[in-house]
Amino acid sequence: MSWNYEDPNSWYKTYPSASGNRQSPINLDTSKEVFDHKLVERPLDIDYVCCEKGELSNTGNSFMVSTGKNCVIRGGPLGEHEYELVQFHAHWGDDNDHGSEHDVDHTPFPMEIHFVHWNKTLYKDAAEATKSPDGLAVVGIFATQDALELVGKENYQLKNVTSELCHIRSAESKPVTIDVIHPIDILPDREDLCDYWTYPGSLTTPPCTENVTWIMLRRPIEVSEEQLLEIRSLECHDGGEMVNNFRPVQALHGREIRTTFE
Q: What is the pTM of this model?
């Protein structure tokens, strides 16, 4: 079933989960975050290997890179369960003042990348996990430069994706193969992977199922203005420009936002 970002507040009419009390994204309110020493004692382990090939496609709502097997995460809020990376995609705005799905103290970023994983400990495949409790874990990364600059230097690790977007500009384009994709290189430096927010949430796109453990990295990555322009050149199903493909922040409804930092 098709959907778009023209009126995300009406998604619940077709996808009932979208009106639940555990929806994403949220505003990461630093005045309400809670330091959890147990997360530090059981570190998050992001164990990504180099994928020889990845498939890049235009979904009509974002670009998506489908990855190979053997990229997994465990530990932290995931406990002993192992989650396998299945794809990553992004959300962005029509300018640099907005674009991310999550906010930090009501401040958005130009872009947010989501690495989507399924629980291979409990379920046989991603399709089953997507519909099941504790089925998914998403690692989210903000794209910016620093507190003073909204857009930074070129991200060379992301370049092998953005340089191929011209081949999938139309939503009707066929997927293309990326010869080598190393997801770990897109993330912040390894020492920065220890600092994150985590909370129980949902998919930010329909069907908005409430079975996602969110892990939002505190440290953003850098992306250049040219790369953002390449991303904004993508087209939706109707041929219009693919921008502002983010859902508004949702109510917290008493959920706890835990952190690994004080």
A: 0.95
Angstrom distances, CA of residue 96 to CA of 141, 144, 191, 227, 240: 16, 9, 27, 12, 19
Percent of the chain with pLDDT over 90: 82
pLDDT tens, residue by residue, 204-228 = 999 999 999 999 999 999 888 889 9
Q: How many residues in the chain? A: 262
Q: Which helix (H) or strand (E) holds 216?
A: strand 212-217
Query: Domain spans of the chain?
Result: 19-259
How many whole angstroms separate alpha carbon 166 and alpha carbon 238? 17
CA neighbours within 13 Å on the CB side: how many for 102?
A: 32
pLDDT for the residue 152: 57
β-strand pairing of 103-104 with 27-28: parallel
pLDDT of residue 89: 98
| CATH classification code of 19-259 | 3.10.200.10
pLDDT of residue 53: 82
208, two tokens: 């908005």
User: 159 — phi, psi (to 5°)?
Assistant: -65, -35
Angstrom distance (rounded) from CA 251 to CA 124: 32
